[in-house]
C-alpha cells in the first residue's frame, strides 16, 4: 500500500492565489488509506480514555467521527457561524487567507471530560487555537490535537504550543 502522503493532492491557488490547498479527497476515497490514517492517529494517542472527539468543520469531521467510533467516544462538531441549531459559544480567529469564526454547542462537553481535537490540516494554527479556546470554556481536559497534515513554514504549532500535538507522518 502507498504511504498516506501519496493520497494528499496539492492544488495551487485554491481557494485564492498563493495558497496551496491540501486535498484529502483521495485519502477519503481509499478505504485502506483511510483506515491506516485512523489506525496511526489512534496509535499515537496517549493511553487515556477519551470522552469526546471534537471535529473541526468541515474536513475534520470525516476522520473525527471514525476516531470517535473507534475510541467509543462521543463526537462534537465545531462549525462555522449559523450552522448549529442550539445555543453556542463563539470564537473568532485568523487563518492563512482571512478571518472567520467557529461555534460549539454550549452543552456539547461536560466539565472534566477528556477531549481529543481533530482537524485535517495544521496551517497557521488559528483554527486549532480557536477550537482549544472553545473547549477550554467547558473546563475539559484536552488530551491531544491531531492532524493529518502540517504545513510547517506557517508555524501553526506556535499558537497551540501548550497542547500535545500529533501530526500523521509516514
TrEMBL record:
Segments forming domain Phosphoribosyltransferase: 30-149
Reaction(s) the record says it catalyses: AMP + diphosphate = 5-phospho-alpha-D-ribose 1-diphosphate + adenine
InterPro entries: Ade_phspho_trans, PRTase-like, PRTase_dom, UPRTase/APRTase
Listed SUPFAM superfamilies: PRTase-like (SSF53271)
One GO location term (cellular component): cytoplasm
Chief place where the protein resides: cytoplasm
Pathway: Purine metabolism; AMP biosynthesis via salvage pathway; AMP from adenine: step 1/1
Pfam family, one: Pribosyltran
Subcellular location: Cytoplasm
Keywords: Cytoplasm, Glycosyltransferase, Purine salvage, Transferase
EC supergroup of this enzyme: transferase
One GO-annotated biological process of the protein: purine ribonucleoside salvage
E.C. number(s) listed in UniProt: 2.4.2.7
Gene Ontology molecular function: any one: AMP binding
Family according to the record: Belongs to the purine/pyrimidine phosphoribosyltransferase family.
Known role: Catalyzes a salvage reaction resulting in the formation of AMP, that is energically less costly than de novo synthesis.
Record's subunit section: Homodimer.
Name of the featured protein: Adenine phosphoribosyltransferase
Species this chain originates from: Psychroflexus maritimus
Recorded name of the encoding gene: apt
